[in-house]
Amino acid sequence: MTTETSSLPLFLPGIRPTRLRRLRSLIGWNGAVVLEVALLIAVWQFAVTGLELWNPRFVPPPSDIADSLARMIGNGQLARHLGYSGGNFVVGYLAAAGTGVVLGFALGSIGVVRVVLGPFIWLAYATPRVAIQPILVLWMGFGVAPKILIIFLMAFFPIVMIVMEGVRNTDPSLLRASRVFGVGGWRRYTKIVLPASLPYVLTGLRLGIARALVGIVVGEFIGGTAGLGYAIRIAGQEFHVDTALAVTLVLVVLANVSMLLLLTLKRRLAPWDQEVSTRLR
Predict the structure, then answer these.
(1) CB atoms within 10 A of CB 228
(2) What does the DSSP 8-state code read for residue 190?
(3) pLDDT at residue 7 in the model
(4) CA Rg, the chain, in Å?
(5) Which has the higher per-residue pLDDT, 12 or 223?
(6) For residue 222, how many other CB atoms are within 10 A of its CB?
(7) pLDDT tens, position by position, 124-137
(8) Residue 76: CB atoms within 10 Å
(9) By CB neighbour count within 10 A (0-12 exposed, 13-18 middle, 19+ buried), where does 151 fall?
(10) Cβ–Cβ < 8 Å for 146, 221
(11) 113 phi and psi angles, rounded to 5 deg
(12) Which of 267, 105, 102 is nearest to 199 (CA)?
């Protein structure tokens, strides 16, 4: 008989909880994360400004990073770079999501498609996409096309591979039962395969967001004239580490917020599966 982890008591009878566990029980998991981040920022600030362990030009304190971020917001630079990167991200990611989900279902469901296209998908998946960005620039120029394409390539393969895995991991007993009760064809696909694969689809879309944000930086590092990746590159060249870290912080926040939204959507649409991604590690 199995019991959900969330239903277990935080403190076992007869065992005295530690101070750390008592603190976590009071503030909750989210509060513990916020507290840890605040403690890290405080230690970082004191180590640089109080103890002077590092040169603040190369390891700026959090206060300098916050000032740089506020300055970029005030002069409109952050909005300009964010708008440029955001437009490329939307086009590249949506294209990757649409084609990745469709092709993932085809690869998982149709043997002929898997035999014909599977080797090419695996070969392309094993190819480091970062390494081909200079070639894309040579082929397509310095416009938005190579930037959108690298975002597409970075997000496409995690999505298609995880969706295919989800389709192929559909419970065989459910498929056999559907045949016994005469449920076949499209009805079996919509009633069994699609619901069973939905957690994988949403997990693939969530992981694709993280890869797509990496594609933003990679695409704008080479041949970029605007965008968040371009801002990081220019700040690094001018030794403005505080600005580079401020833009990086924006990317981290965007990635976590986007993945949190998809995780929330997954919990609403597929409450029967708590976390498919833990099986894929």
Answers:
(1) 24
(2) I
(3) 44
(4) 23
(5) 223
(6) 19
(7) 888 888 888 888 88
(8) 9
(9) buried
(10) no
(11) -65, -40
(12) 267
